[in-house]
Structures are given as structure tokens and as C-alpha cells.
Here is the input.
Amino acid sequence: MADLTPTPDNPGLHVSKHSVYAPANGSYACRCGETQQAKGDESVRDLVTGWTDHRAACTGRKGQ
Here is the structure.
């Protein structure tokens, strides 16, 4: 399986939770260069909200 970690060249959101008892992990990367990571269920929920908000407000790629 390919690495699912998002990068500015391969942007997106990745969330994982290996079991009900394990904390969630998440990361996102945007084409503009912004990246974020979070660990823990509540922090990952905030990360998803942040990704959604960023995508709505993002003006484009870094350096353009």
C-alpha cells in the first residue's frame, strides 16, 4: 500500500484510528503548502474542521 500521508504535492486529509481504544491520528496538507497534524480524538476532530475551513478560504498554491 502506498504511503497515505498527505503532502503539498499530493494534498488531502488522512485520519486513522487503529482501534476503539487507541487515539485517532490525523494530518492534512494543502497545495498552498499549509500542513497540520493532530493526535487524539478531540484534536483530530478539530483538525478536520480546520481542513474544511482552510479549503474554503485557501487562495491557491504556494508561490503563486
